[in-house]
């Protein structure tokens, strides 16, 4: 049993700052991408006349 | 027009070409179609920015405008994103999408270079004419192409970078790649944000977004390819 404990690999960690910040930033990016995609789709479907680049 | 406006794309152009040089140099050392496509994508970025700087400093020129619309507005995001497709997707899928992108790009080239232009339309409405905009294209159907290319580019480039960062973060490995990919994702979003603010009449917003985008993409690439000391 003792050996089993020794064989369990330690869970990896990033430095505390990155542990907190990375998921928040990724969530914000995901949200922005969804909004951007909706806007682009809207432009492609002609919902915003004159907005195309 | 602000004195600084034409210089913003000039700096974007310089940064893009220097970045492209770094990517091509890595391609020669490591090979890999993703590096080749990212290099080509950054050359497109630089060409688009060069055309914007030319317009700001020397005025209207139909050839420069067509080059800007083709490379800067239609192709750049999609070609950069195609590099990410080669990195993350299977080779068969990537090759199939590459063939579609080449056909689409050639179609875009023909449409942009045969379109009728009227530069006076750029100063109508909310745009002041200080920045290039697609309004100068009179021929219908040309501007309709742009969102489809940008949709593909956003999904693949931003989505691919964010997805990679998420995978590295979940496994808690290669911190430099996590940070690099986040910078790349944010850098790829920046020009789209600039474009949106530009449509609300904010002067130079598009050019600021593009400059920020070039800087962040470059920083992200360097970070992702350079391991950190403590790793």
Report on this model:
The complex is a heterodimer of chains A (53) and B (231). Chain A is built from two helices and no strands. Chain A is mainly alpha-helical and 53 residues long. The longest helix of chain A is centred in the middle third of the chain and has 29 residues. Chain B starts with 6 loop residues before the first helix and ends in a 7-residue tail after the last helix. The mean pLDDT of chain B is 91. At the A-B interface, α2 of A face α5 and α6 of B.
Summarize the structure.
The complex is a heterodimer of chains A (53) and B (231). Chain A is an all-alpha fold. Helices cover 66% and strands 0% of the residues of chain A.
How do the helices and strands line up, and which of them pair or pack?
The complex is a heterodimer of chains A (about 55) and B (about 230).
Chain A: H1 2-7, H2 16-44
Chain B: H1 7-30, H2 33-58, H3 62-88, H4 91-113, H5 145-171, H6 175-199, H7 205-224
């Amino acid at each position: 049993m003792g050996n089993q404990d020794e064989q369990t690999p330690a869970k990896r960690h990033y430095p505390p700052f990155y542990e907190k910040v990375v998921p928040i930033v990724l969530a914000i990016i995901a949200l922005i991408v969804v909004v951007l995609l909706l806007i682009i789709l809207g432009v492609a479907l002609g919902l915003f006349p004159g907005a195309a680049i | 027009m602000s004195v600084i406006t034409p210089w913003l794309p000039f700096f974007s152009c310089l940064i893009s070409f220097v970045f492209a040089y770094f990517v091509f140099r890595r391609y020669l050392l490591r090979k890999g179609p993703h590096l080749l496509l990212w290099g080509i994508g950054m050359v497109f970025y630089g060409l688009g920015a060069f055309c914007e700087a030319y317009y700001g400093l020397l005025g209207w020129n139909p050839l420069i405008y067509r080059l800007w619309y083709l490379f800067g507005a239609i192709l750049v995001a999609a070609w950069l994103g195609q590099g990410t497709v080669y990195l993350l997707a299977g080779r068969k899928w990537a090759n199939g999408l590459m063939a579609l992108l080449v056909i689409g790009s050639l179609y875009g080239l023909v449409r942009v270079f045969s379109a009728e232009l009227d530069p006076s339309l750029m100063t109508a409405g909310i745009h002041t004419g200080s920045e290039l905009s697609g309004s100068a294209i009179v021929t219908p159907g040309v501007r309709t192409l742009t969102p489809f290319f940008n949709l593909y580019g956003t999904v693949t480039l931003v989505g691919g970078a964010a997805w990679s960062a998420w995978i590295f973060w979940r496994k808690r490995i290669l911190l430099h790649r996590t940070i690099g990919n986040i910078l790349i994702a944010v850098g790829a979003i920046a020009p789209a944000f600039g474009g949106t603010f530009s449509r609300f009449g904010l002067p130079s917003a598009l050019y600021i977004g593009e400059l920020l985008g070039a800087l962040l993409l470059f920083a992200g690439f360097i970070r992702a390819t350079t391991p950190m000391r403590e790793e």
